[in-house]
Protein: Glycosyltransferase family 2 protein
Amino acid sequence: MISVIIVNHDGEAHIGRCLASLDGSGAEVLLVDNASRDNSLSLVQERFPEVKIFSQEENLGFAAANNLAAAKANGEALLLLNADAWLEAGALDLLEEKLNTRPDVGLVAPRLRYPDGRRQFSWAPARGFVGEVLQRARNPFEAQAWAHGTLARWLAQVVGPTWYTAACVLVRAEAFRAVGGFDESFFMYFEDVDLCLRLEAAGWRLAQEPRAVVCHAGGVTGRSEVDDLYRPSQLRYYRLHRPQWERRFVERRMRRRYGDAAVDRWLTVGRGR
Structure:
């Protein structure tokens, strides 16, 4: 059985379509509501009474909310699905088939598209200074088919294995729990990069099933809010996984761009919760 885990925070615009895409799948669906202020929670309760809801009085963050649901899930595999994403026909079966036929694979990702049909990156180069530079360089080519196959393989040879965004991934429950799930010190952003690294370090392979297609709206967070969520996680990731010179280099660049006060605040937040 598959357990679908959805973390919702003010997701009224998309949560109905997300859950409707799971109709008939036979999956267990668990939804953690991170203190939503809109009508998304009542929408789920009224239209999808079969969904197991874990309503929170405060926003736990993406990593902690996923871990909460994963601890209560009964499936042998966990589909981590953003509230602003929905599966196209047959996607879940294809992801499950990939996991079942590849016992060495701990995580499998689908092919992502925007709602208008444009291709969307589901992968990125190995995180680090060089990887982030290459990621920015490849982003303008998101619509190109070669950027999702040939480029990914080439970059993996240059900077190391690619990782997959947790907008939608199917993870073997055994593997997820063996590595301790998401690191909850990442409130949002970089928790999926960190998870992929730890899965690979534990001997699991990561794979993609391009026949499985998932639509992901994305891009709903404002720039200033992204900085206050993204930068603490970025700094923490570099402290955990990158050499000292990279940590210092990234911090100095941030101080020049955002100022000492902002970076000092992000460093405090990024030390963990």
User: Anything to note?
Assistant: The domain at 2-122+165-216 is CATH 3.90.550.10 (Spore Coat Polysaccharide Biosynthesis Protein SpsA; Chain A).
